[in-house]
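Researcher: I'm preparing a figure for a lab meeting and need a structural model of a single chain. I don't have an experimental structure, so a prediction will have to do for now. The sequence is pasted below. Please return the structure as tokens so I can convert it later.
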Amino acid sequence: MYSVPNQQSVIDDLGDKFLGAFVDAVVGAKDDLEAFRERFPAWFVNFSKRFIANFIHERMWDRMIRQVSDHPGVQIVDKGSIRQIIVDQYVIRFKRHRPKMQISTYPTAGALAFWTNKAMIPGTETHSLALGYIWDVDEAEIKNPILSYRSALDTPEWSVELDAPGPTASGTTPIGWKPLTPDLPQIDLSEIVDDDAEGDASTS
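Model: Understood. Here is the structure written out token by token.
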């Protein structure tokens, strides 16, 4: 029977090491984007939105898989237009989130079904998750790392911002997170082409 897992249970299941690696990947991708912008400012102003989205995705993906590919229970899928990370019962795709928690995808039947979280194989309890970042359109800048759970492409059931664990005198703090109240938007397909390469463009 379909049920929505709560934020804390998902965060506990994914674990501090995995989520910490993801926060590092987002921060690193932001640094890479800024370094690229500073190195080639005349080029950057003419780059398409799609190119910038693809660049960020590539840098996040590369940084992430180098950190987690040997984690127990982690499976990396990189086949054509499908890129996802499977952690036990969770199937994760990287997505750019807008401030009202919209994400975009090429609207094939397979991609839309993925985000319903109801198209599970009988007898399994898998859940689709979006790990990504808030995108500031006006500043063209990566903001906070984010994790969201959806019952449809445009319907976030919940979303949380993530903070990296930090060192303390007694060890390391757990991953930090805070819930965001979903502001349920109308479906946003305005940048389908820009997001086409973010990991779920095919019908698989």
